[in-house]
Amino acid sequence: MSQKIFVFDTTLRDGEQVPGCQLNIEEKLMIARELDLLGVDIIEAGFPISSPGDFKAVEAISKVVQNATVCGLTRAVKKDIEVAAEALKPAKRSRIHTGIGSSDIHIQHKFNSNRDEILQRGVDAVKYARQFTDDVEFYAEDAGRSDIEFLARLTEAVIKAGATVVNLPDTTGYLLPNQTFERISYLVNNVPNVDKAILSMHNHNDLGMATANTIAGIQAGARQVEVTINGIGERAGNTSLEEVVMTLKVHKDLGLYTDIKTEKLAPLSHLVSKTMRMPVQANKAIVGRNAFAHSSGIHQDGFLKHSLNYEIMTPQEVGVDKSDIVLTARSGRHAIKHRMELLGFNATKEKLDEIYEEFLLLADKIKEVNDKDLVGLVRPMLEEVEQ
Ligand code: KIV
Ligand code: ZN
After folding, report:
1. What is the mean pLDDT of the chain?
2. Can you give the pTM of this predicted structure?
3. In what helix (H) or strand (E) does residue 241 lie, and over which residues does it extend?
């Protein structure tokens, strides 16, 4: 039987930390409503102690979200937890996300501390957060570079203290997919009370492996993914929601599913890009402008014979109207003929050859030939025939 993967969206927290992407409350509310409609399970709405504006935003989002759990981030600090609990009060379902650095690098260079003290601070934070809500997620920051035996000890201790979810972030985007798989497998097999909590993947994209690492983690047994729309986030970004969700949809063989309404992905990607003033690269998987655009002659010919030849999902599944055939000097006759027919022009084989020769000259000059350019080229050539 297929198993559910919980989708934890952090566009409004980790995504919004990006310089230049800050949103006002109205913008955050608009995106939160859309995330709720998209079907995410948890919305991380902000870091309430960080500023009065973020507190107000988390509070306002808590009031409007209907289905998702609303989550607020804290450090393993009492005051942070109290402020987050206050901001989350109006939520139908709330989660406090608390935690502390767990790698020796963080323990020494951020906290000037030691493993035992850090473990105790994590446990105390979870216990304190549980006084405000029964849904507490613990993050072991920089878990990707943490000593695995210590990470297992910490995971066991925070679950015992009441954590319902344990987040194992690859904060610096350091890991390889096979390492992620091995590390999560280690926790699944060596933490005695692991079945009492959900393990969560939170991967950054510094080496371009966030999605691959997230998938590797859930293949090893994690059941929550922490993601952002368009993969927006610190430095090279977070794991992209649309990539993980569509990977699970396309690879039904993994036996995992999400509740995301995938036909809403592209519209929400555009909204986030516009509101956060962060353009999406044209070749971005799933939501980039070229994700369903075919431009070489061989691909266009194969696609026109059957879309399955070159597409592993339909554009409609992710909310894009249709695939695109881009006419350039790399296009072949099949694509030109197809576009001419869509525009109402038919030509004999000989005439099509002539048109194609002229088309290549034009395409070399102007690079992309749009419908208006094609009509301008084809109409006079076909009118010659009719005279
Ligand atoms: O990347 C990270 O470690 C984080 C934590 C605060 C969850 O964003
Ligand atoms: Zn992060």
Report:
1. 97
2. 0.96
3. helix 241-250
Decide: 202 in ligand 1 pocket, CB within 6 A.
yes
3-state SS assignment for residue 100: strand
**Cβ-count burial 159-183 (b if 16+ within 10 Å, e if not):** bebbbbbbbbbbbbbbbebeebbeb
Domains and CATH numbers, the chain: 3-276 (3.20.20.70), 293-386 (no CATH)
CA atoms within 13 A on the CB side of 366: 14
Residue nearest to atom 7 of ligand 1 (CA): 139
State the DSSP H helix or E strand holding residue 362, giving kind and residue range, or none if neither: helix 349-366
113 Cα to the center of ligand 2, angstroms? 22
**Using one digit for the tens of pLDDT, what is the confidence trace for 239-297?**
999 999 999 999 999 999 999 999 999 999 999 999 999 999 999 999 999 999 999 99
Do 221 and 189 meet the contact criterion of CB atoms below 8 Å apart?
A: no
Mean pLDDT of 161-189: 98
Cβ partners under 8 Å of residue 52, min gap 6 = none
Sole residue written with tokens 């266009």: 300
User: How far apart are alpha carbons 244 and 250 in whole angstroms?
Assistant: 10
Which atom of ligand 1 has the smallest separation from the CA of 169?
3
